Amino acid sequence: MTKEQIKAALAPVLTATGLDRPAFAVVIPVECAADGVHLWVEVRAAGISQAGDPCFPGGKIEPGETPAQAAARELYEELGIFADPADFLGQLPTVQTYLGRNTDVFVCAITAQDAAGIRTNPNEVAELLRVPMSYLLQSPDAASYPWEGHSIWGMTAGAIRHLCAAWDRAGLTKQVI
Q1: Are 89 and 30 a contacting pair, CB within 8 Å?
Q2: Helix (H/G/I), strand (E/B), else coil: 151
């Protein structure tokens, strides 16, 4: 499945607009590769809040930034992937962390070439997980997703549930390797 195919299918269903003033923004990197579609999930580095927790690239929205600009900036700072917010596939519903923070969630398709060039920031990322979309779609409503010794839970699992629902609405479920 190519980036263009995913974009064409998801564009009509990724139409959330988020909150007027969310505090945080994240982006779900969706890799379109020869071996299927995968999400990239970070494990937070020691020494930062929620160390060891799996999450998507993201963080606090800086003054003057839109949520999408913050998500794109964080994607670059944490994984070294440049993405123009105008090229994001769309936005999922705003999710709330267990600490009560509202977070806007964006979806960005990346190529296998982008993925091969990932440069994690060791100050923020301890490990990077490449999670097959086909695995996540087996339990689209799960409270958590165990993967490679980690439990993807909380806000990150909530964003995955929203993405799985959008994926299904877009008719992509049967096309994932």
Answers
A1: yes
A2: strand
